[in-house]
Amino acid sequence: MAKARMIGIGMDYSATSKTALKWAIDNLIQTGDALVILLVLSPKSDPVNKKLFADTGSPLIPLVELKETGVCRKYGITPDSELLDMLDTVSAVKQVKVVAKVYWGDAREKLCEAVNYLKLDALVVGSRGLGAIKRYV
Q1: How far is C-alpha 8 from the chain's CA centre?
Q2: What string of DSSP letters covers 17-50?
Q3: Contact (Cβ atoms closer than 8 angstroms) between residue 29 and residue 96
């Protein structure tokens, strides 16, 4: 049996990041993998726990806690029912462990930090709505 992989998904609640999540669920994630939803919020946001975790990002937040409005408020997360439904489904159907981690700052830097810190096997991000040529350039 192969070692469970850690797959990271860069999430900003946009249609393209949700499409990236759907693609990863359909094509990449296998039974037993761990799925880490990486949320990078504006450095200007000021949730309760930002000062405590500004440098390292939040601790890993289990899917069950991610559904609680109090937890979302502490980290400055906007709950999204469509996203939570997708995560519930993949968790149940493929027995995937789903967690989230919140960072504050520049998305590019924080996603690179997450890859190194969490030892991700793959990182999937959306296209920010850009076509193939614009993504390349």
Answers
A1: 6
A2: HHHHHHHHHHHT--TT-EEEEEEEE-TT---TTH
A3: yes
